[in-house]
Design a protein that fits this description.
By secondary structure, the chain is of the alpha+beta class. It contains 6 helices and 7 strands, in the order βαααββαβαβαββ. It is globular, with a radius of gyration of 16 Å.
Length: 183
């Protein structure tokens, strides 16, 4: 069996890979395709208009024998006071900064179903978070998504609920402390 090869990509490279990413996204989200929020054109729109143009955007892509089997991406989020406030309430032991401090918004992770259950999702997750300068990462996960159990085992904690778009589901908000990056 081939080893997963993980590579980091910036916004331009990511957008150039969209044609290759879409089949992975559609296969990974197949059970959600009845909901327009998950439709491929909506995914592309969010990536092109909201995420890729943001400062701090990164994507990691995993390949087996040159074939894309998974990806994860995220971006820096400057307007983060509401998240820090939620962390302070939900995780009382967490030191919350007095001044605004950016966070890392973990936007998306998808692994093709034929490759799930092999640790590739964890590898992509860890690669994306490795070396991030932010102290806190934040993600949204559908409450029915079994991935929330994986996130919890990887150090994420539920801090609230949110409906980020008028046509989106209500998601669980999760946060995770990141190791300090040594510069």
């Amino acid at each position: 069996m081939a080893d997963l090869v993980v590579a980091r990509h910036g916004p331009d490279e990511t957008l150039a890979m969209l044609r290759e990413m879409l089949p992975v996204y559609v296969a990974a989200e197949a059970e959600q395709m009845h909901d327009p929020f998950y439709w491929p054109d909506r995914f592309v729109d969010r990536l092109e208009r909201m995420y890729a143009p943001s400062s701090g955007f990164e994507m990691v892509a995993g390949r087996l024998d040159g074939r894309l089997v998974g990806f994860a991406f995220g971006t820096t989020r400057e307007k983060s006071q509401r998240v820090w406030d939620a962390v302070g309430k939900a995780l009382p032991g967490m030191s919350v900064p007095e001044k605004r401090e950016s966070i890392f918004l973990f936007c998306e992770i998808n692994v093709h179903p034929s490759c799930q259950g092999r640790g590739y999702g964890r590898a992509l997750h860890d690669a994306l978070l490795a070396g991030r300068p932010e102290r806190l990462a934040f993600l949204l996960v559908h409450p029915d998504n079994l991935a929330r159990f994986a996130y919890a085992s990887w150090g994420w904690r539920k801090i609230g609920e949110q409906q980020p778009f008028p046509d989106s589901p209500v998601f669980d908000e999760m946060a995770r402390v990141l190791p300090l990056r040594r510069l």
